[in-house]
Amino acid sequence: MAAKNVHSRTLSLQAKLEAEKRNSAATMLKVNEGWRSILRQTQDTELRQHIMMLKQQFERETDGLDNTIENLECGLLQKERQSAQVRRAHLQNVESLCALHDKRLNLVQEPWENCMEHISSKLNSQRELLLADSQQQEDNLEATMSLMEDKHKAVMEDMHKLYSQSTKLYEYAYEERKEADTEKKEESKQKPKWEPENDEWFRRMIEKDTFDIQEVNKDIKKMMMDPLMSRRKQTLTKLLIQEDVRAQQQQEKLRLHNQLAQVQKDGRKRLTNLTMQSNNATKKLQTVIAKGERILLLGKVCQTLETKLEKASAISFLTMEHREEKTEPETEEPAKKVSEVPELHQLTQRLNHVVLQRDALKKHKVELKQENEQLKLQLHKHLDDMTLSNNTFSAPDAPLTVHQALITRAPKTNTPNTNTPNTSGPNTRPPTANTPNTSGPNTRPPKTNTPTTTKM
Amino acid sequence: METSEAQTSRADRIDMQTTMSKSPSSPGVKLNPAESFSKMRRIIAEDPDWYLNIVPCLSDLCLQSIVSNFEENPMFEVLTPTQKDFVHERLSTSLDLQVTANMVSDGVYWKRCCEQRWDICDLSHYGNSWKRMFFERHMEKIIELFIPDVTQTKTVLDMIPLCKNYVKRLDISQLLPPIKEPQNEEDECGSEFSSDNEYDEPSMDHFDFNILLSKLTNLEELHLMYRVKQCGMNFEWKMFEMTDRDCESLAKALKSCETLKLLRIRESHLEDEKCRLLVKYLLDHPSLRELDFSHNLIGDRGARAVGKLLTRSKLEILNMCDNNIRGPGAKAIAHALCKNSTLVSLNLRLNRLRDEGGEALGKALLDNNTLLHLHLGANEVTGPTAIALSKVLFQNNTLRSINLSCNNLGVLGGKALEEAMSRNTSVTECDIRLTEVDEQSVSYINQAVWNNQSLEQKKHGRESKTK
């Protein structure tokens, strides 16, 4: 029982324990809840205050951040704006610089292009000129070439002709020489030295030719003997020999030509000398002839004079002799008068006669002058009267010519004896032909009278 | 006075000559070194125009007095050409422009003025006219240094009647904004009193062209850049932008200028709205021939406006390089091209046309017969565009130069272009650098282009010969 009681007590105690535990738990819960509620109530306000504080704090921070963000934004915008502005300004400046550069380039390019065009045009013109010149030169060259070729051909033909002629001549001469040689050999005994040079020269020529001919003959024989290989050599040698022969013949031709030329030159020289001499001779003869003619003329004049003298004085036979003798002394110069005495006498007589005549003539001349002056005065008076009456009828320049009619004029005479060329005859030829009236009553034909007046 | 001085100096010189004295440093003596060579010691002439023997004649003296008194009594028209040359040489370059501008004709005087003021003078850029160079650069300077609300507009207005006959082109490379006074933080607090010291709204953001353009009766070209060149540490993005007010005033000014042929507004931050505004005022402009809105921010809407402008004006050259035009914008321009018959050169380089825009342009060009130059470089255009353009090249006879550089055309595109170029006879410039086209195609296309070039040269030669 006790165990049961204990057991029951323990059970009950346990149940009580559990109940108390439950109760305590419940009360604990209640206590906790109560505690929590009290705590809540007390901490509520604190927490709320906390929240408020934190809120404000966070707000402040957000505000601060917002402000910074805004500032940054503004700054960014401004920077962007600034950079845009700078960029724009830079762009505008660069564009203006480019424009200036282009302007400068254009300014510089124009003269450069002009210069280039100028130079290129110059070069082109020069090129064309040069081309034209070169073409002309080519044409000229071609023409000259053709001419030269023609000339060459002609010369060659001439050469050939000459060669043939010379060969022919040579052969002919050779044959002649042969004949001459044979003749010479015959005559050589008589005349050993007849043109020895030519003889030797001919002999040499003959020897050479015979030698050549012998050689040619030998070659021909050789050719005949050796037809094959030797022929070539022989032909070559033949050609060579022929060429040599031709050369020699050409040389001979040249020599002949030279000789001919020399001979011709000599002949020409002689001809020229002859002509010169003949010219001189002819000239001299002509001068002599002229002199002779002059002398003849003089003689004729003297004759006339002397005939006149004869009429004046009676010295006819003397004049005949004088004429013959005059010509001789006059041609021989007056210095030879002394050589022949009778002629001198006659001459001196004549001279005296002539001198006396001259003196008489001078006196007569003086007298005539005086008469002329007197007559002039008379004429003046007479003619004044005449002109006063004639002025009404004649030309207006009449009075001038009256005075001019009295002016003396020198008549032209060829006589050697006249010493006074100026004559003052009463009848002078008026220079104008306007006044036949004034000079009418006083005129005699002047030409015929003047010699009579002087020689009176 | 002058003559007596000359006489005394001449007397001195005569004395020196006769006595052969060697006093080198007498200050008053003027010697012409060309005349006294060996026997005298050399003295550098002070007046190179001084002559011993020649007394200046009365006309020279009169001209000298004219030159010295030009301000009080200007007379130029009455002079003979040689006298005018004398005056050109001698007239002082610092004379007031009021006096000289309309009096003194084009010549050496203006050359002297230009060279005194500026170092580099490229005469060919200004039509070989020194006067034009002077006045254009002077005007440009005035406008570039014009500070709104500080500089008086009177300075500009006074200048206009003097230079309006000579100014044909204005190349303005900066436009200054109004001066901004430094703001204090206290003033930002919107107190009434502070509004006076605060940044006052200026009357104009940049120079107002309304006062100028209508009065310049010979103006043919206007180049504008809304930027500041030497801002240093005071950099602000606003200095490099064109404001709406500026745009409006400029647009009105452009409308009033009736002789303008070329308008160029570069690097001025021009967006769609501003572009539309400008185009609105440029529609039916009587003389505008060339429009250049490059290096701006024009997008599709602006491109559409420009397309509208193409149909309603006589534009010959359009340059929209380095903008933001995409496919739709290109389509608008292409649509305008179909009907247009005046445009000769189109430059859409450095945009974002892509194949959409490229193909649209290609289709439009099938109908167009006047376009000579097309530039589509760096537009992210690929093979299909090349194929479209090659279709154009088959039949088109007027297109002279095409530029598709820096686009990824690929081998297929290259082959299409090659086939097209074999049949084409008018294209003398085809730029396909950096397009990743096959080398064979490149060489083939180059050959075709060279053939076309030689053909054209022969044509030119024949034409010149016939002329």
TrEMBL record, chain A:
Residues 8-94 form the Dynein regulatory complex protein 1/2 N-terminal domain. One of its GO terms (biological process) is axonemal dynein complex assembly. One of its GO terms (cellular component) is axonemal dynein complex. Residues 358-385 form a coiled coil. Keywords: Cell projection, Cilium, Coiled coil, Cytoplasm, Cytoskeleton, Flagellum. The keyword Coiled coil applies. It comes from the Eukaryota. Residues 409-456 are annotated as: Disordered. The keyword Ribonucleoprotein does not apply. Residues 413-456 have a biased composition (Low complexity). It holds the Pfam family NYD-SP28. It is found in: Cytoplasm, Cytoskeleton, Flagellum axoneme; Cytoplasm, Cytoskeleton, Flagellum basal body. Component of the nexin-dynein regulatory complex (N-DRC), a key regulator of ciliary/flagellar motility which maintains the alignment and integrity of the distal axoneme and regulates microtubule sliding in motile axonemes. Plays a critical role in the assembly of N-DRC and also stabilizes the assembly of multiple inner dynein arms and radial spokes. Coassembles with DRC1 to form a central scaffold needed for assembly of the N-DRC and its attachment to the outer doublet microtubules. Belongs to the DRC2 family. This is Dynein regulatory complex subunit 2. It comes from Larimichthys crocea (Large yellow croaker).
From TrEMBL, chain B:
GO terms for cellular component: cytoskeleton. Transmembrane segments: none annotated. Residues 16-26 have a biased composition (Polar residues). It is found in: Cytoplasm, Cytoskeleton. Pfam families: LRR_6. The keyword Nuclease does not apply. Keywords: Cytoplasm, Cytoskeleton. It comes from the Eukaryota. Gene3D superfamilies: Ribonuclease Inhibitor. PANTHER family: DYNEIN REGULATORY COMPLEX SUBUNIT 5, YNEIN REGULATORY COMPLEX SUBUNIT 5. This is T-complex-associated testis-expressed protein 1. It comes from Larimichthys crocea (Large yellow croaker).
